[in-house]
Structure formats: C-alpha cells, structure tokens
Amino acid sequence: MRRARPPSGSVVLLSGGMDSATCLAIAARDRAPVHALTILYGQRHAREVRSARALARRFRVAHHTVLKLPLGPLLDSALTRRTQRLPRGGAHRGRIPSTYVPARNTILLSVALGYAESHRLGAIYLGANAIDYSGYPDCRPEYLRAFERLARLATRAGVADGWRIRILAPLLRRSKAQIVELGDRLSVPWELTWSCYAGGREPCGRCDACRLRARGFRLAGRRDPMVRPSRRGG
Asked: Which of 4, 108, 120, 165 has the fewest CB atoms within 10 Å distance of its CB?
C-alpha cells in the first residue's frame, strides 16, 4: 500500500491587515508551501480583500482562496452592523469591545482546519493578538490551546492518521510596535495592507484600528506608507 505523504506547509488566515500580513511573511519563511485563506464572513466592507490578494501575489503563495461565508446577519458586532457606530475611544481593559464578532475565530479556524486536513498542511497561522486586543476572548492563549486540542480530537488526521495540525499565533504577545519592527525585518509591504474598520478609499484615521496602527508605527519610529502626513498620529 502506498503511504500518504507526510504533512507539510501551512495555511494562513489572511485578512489583508498588518497582523495577517506579518503571519504570511513568517509562514513563507518557515513553513512553505503556503496557502492563504481569506474569508468574507459578512463584515461591513470588503476593502481588505484587495489587500489580501495583493499580499498573496507578493509572497507567491501556492494557492489563495477567497471564500464568501455571509454570516453577517447572524453575528451582532459593530463590524457586521452598519447601524452600529465604530468605536473611536480606544480599548478599555476588561471590557469586550463592540468590534468583537461572536465566535469569529472559531468559525475561521474551523474552516482553516478543514482546509489544512484536506490539503495535508501541518499548520494554521492566525494573526491573533492578546496585547492590543486584550478584550477579545478568542484571542487568548488558552483559547488557542483549546482549539489545538480540538483539532487533534475532531479530525481523522489526529485520531487515525497520527499527524498533528498546529495552531500558530506568532504575534500573540507582541505589541503593534513590535509587529511593525518584525514586519520590517521580514520585508512586509505595509503599503499593501489595510487596517481601517470603515473601509473606503483611504484609511479614516479615526477608528480604533487606525489609531492602534498609527500608535504602533509611531512607537516603532517608522512611517506608515498608507497614511498621508496630515493624518499621522493618534
């Protein structure tokens, strides 16, 4: 009987933002061949998909899938409801922000898990961060460890075939400034990334995502190529 090839490579959950772009660069360095998976789950804009496509081309991924999974009407969040105002006041420690999307990482990781098992990829990369987004329950280390246990228990790969799919979140304990510094070392093209919650042609510079990005670049002593000089800061 012909033996199945051993698992190799990785799949990156690629949103088009800073964190997922840096994860893509890490995966390209450490776990090729790299596949990229971009999921439109019903977020209020799709501007970031353009960035995801550009990043996938820049890093020459083996395959990039853009999947429409229109769950927005089922998920109550400022990122899925245009009637809700986007937060502009910064993160509040101990409070889950209105940009939390119920079960989003569980949904995205489940799709990536099925993809990884089907393509015999040994790792899933997720740009989760427990420092800047400390209010998100599905960005905590204990959550990611629990999902990795689930991956072993709920797949043929883990139960019968004897190989493990790793859940990798290399940015989990890095600040935005540290992510900027790491991305620079990995030649992440920041001008191709998108962070703004509001969408549009240019970043709004006012939403929490824009403010957090601006702070990261400022503390890292770098210039954000996506922001015009008059809009820097925040």
From this structure: 4
